[in-house]
Amino acid sequence: MTDYLTEFLKGFTLTQAEVEQLSSEIDVRTYKQGTILLRQGDVSKECYFVLQGCLRQFAIDEAGEENTYNFYTEKQTAINYKSYTQRIPSEYSIECVEDSVLIVGDFINEDVMFQKYPKLIEITRGFMEEDLANIQDNNARFISASPQERYLNLLDTRPNLIDRVPQHQLASLLGMKPESLSRVKRRLNL
């Protein structure tokens, strides 16, 4: 498990000693496919960073319909910021779509690590800024796009996702039914 973390940390301006120290102190866990990391209605106590694997953010609406909002893959943060920071019940769940290796953080350890390793603040901030920019771009494209355009955009921006997640979840992410996704793929000869 620490091999994934060590390789990841080497991509930053850290000394070899810092990489070794961080690798021994950062909480890295493996989870099996299907593991629920956060249940809708629970207060989020942890945040996750994907070193390997795929996570899904989803909610079940009042009609019992499951709606997928996002997938998180390598080098992405999976957190319900609102629940985690405000200590309120989460409006969605996060589950492992694949066996996953994750960095796991919580408020107490996060503050200790930031004080001990100030460079982590800069690294974390960079990922948060990138996440926010991606969310804004994705929302803008999603709102103005047709179902076919949404699928083509996904092929362009996240092509590896297509073969990693079940088609019904992919259709939900794109705001369509599985049958509609099949029609779009047929029209595009994919």
UniProtKB/TrEMBL annotation:
It comes from the Bacteria. Pfam families: cNMP_binding (PF00027). Gene3D superfamilies: Jelly Rolls. SUPFAM superfamilies: cAMP-binding domain-like (SSF51206). InterPro entries: cNMP-bd_dom (IPR000595), cNMP-bd_dom_sf (IPR018490), RmlC-like_jellyroll (IPR014710). Residues 14-56 form the Cyclic nucleotide-binding domain. This is Crp/Fnr family transcriptional regulator. It comes from Ruoffia tabacinasalis. The lineage of its organism: Bacteria, Bacillati, Bacillota, Bacilli, Lactobacillales.
